[in-house]
UniProtKB/TrEMBL annotation:
Organism annotation: Chryseobacterium viscerum
EC number: 3.2.2.31
Protein name: Adenine DNA glycosylase
Function, as annotated: Adenine glycosylase active on G-A mispairs. MutY also corrects error-prone DNA synthesis past GO lesions which are due to the oxidatively damaged form of guanine: 7,8-dihydro-8-oxoguanine (8-oxo-dGTP).
Gene assigned in the entry: mutY
Catalytic activity: Hydrolyzes free adenine bases from 7,8-dihydro-8-oxoguanine:adenine mismatched double-stranded DNA, leaving an apurinic site
UniProt domain HhH-GPD: residue ranges: 45-195
Amino acid sequence: MEKDSRNSDFLHVGNKILEWYGNNARDLPFRQTKDPYKIWICEIVFQQTRINQGLNHYNNFIKRFPDVKTLAEAEENEVLLYWKGLGYYSRAINIHKAAQQIMNDYHGVFPDQYEEILKLKGVGKYTAAAVSSICFGGRMPAVDGNFYRVLSRLFADNFDISNSKAFTYFSELAGLVMPENVGDFNQAMMDIGSEICKPKNPLCGECPINEDCLAFSIQKIADYPVKTKKVKAEDLALTYYFVHRNGQFLIRQRKEDFIWKKLFEFPDAISSNMETCITGSKTVNHKLTHKNLSIEIINVEVTSEKIWNDFIDENQYLITDVEGSHEKSFPKPLENYIQNSLKD
DNA sequence: CAATCGTGGAG
DNA sequence: TCTCCAAGATT
């Protein structure tokens, strides 16, 4: 039976990728260390997040929380503050809990085994593989979106990446290609995926493995990866009241298991005797992955001290001002609203 | 296990 | 304007 040359000896592909990485690795702050703490933080920050989008957050986070102990001892709200604007805020909650796990269960020493790293809150198979391979010589492929794309093109493989078994499937494909240095290989695949084998307009001419790439050879790059499921965003209307008096305004912390959990927000209702204080409103549209939000923010200018105080007492709202809001984490549209309120 | 969780940039 | 999607994890 005739075998395509691409179907044997895949190891040379991995070595080509490593060689390319040696000359083309991006110069990123977390590339200059093997401190598992820093690598862990960077892996969490950059989940579903582009490098340019998360770089400042990463640097600021490391500066404020340079080690596990500092992070574990911090207040949850301050950890959330350093996550402000980054999205997927449960990452901040989990990263804080995981730091406490490391202090309590591992005496403050970052676990060096894949199975142990996997037990940390917010750490899944991808992150455990990345940290263990980069920092401790672990040998698991860090299969992420880049792996799906590069491998599905390399093998012209139709496996649906929205299938829940995609991780296992592409882990096996990765195993065919994976060379000795798994840590560098994992990082190399991410760089190739984001710099060369891009979702749109990939730079196949510059790709170190274009001679091995089946999709490239049959001119079908755009057909891979296959992804059948599309997320549909539903419309959702929210109403907030920007209740303010003498430069101060009212907020509270979200608690329900819903969007923006544990972030701060404005009141979503006012007392009946406040309705005469309404001076206008503004509607902001904001897109989340699964929701198209239409947020109406009603301006309530309270003049009566009694009405102000009664409302706060009844609902246990917190009082802040623009300056104080800098110390709390708000959803992006509310953060924007607060900053714009300066211009009045 | 399919649905859910942000934000911003590219095309 | 609109769609896709980016170093995923959790429930």
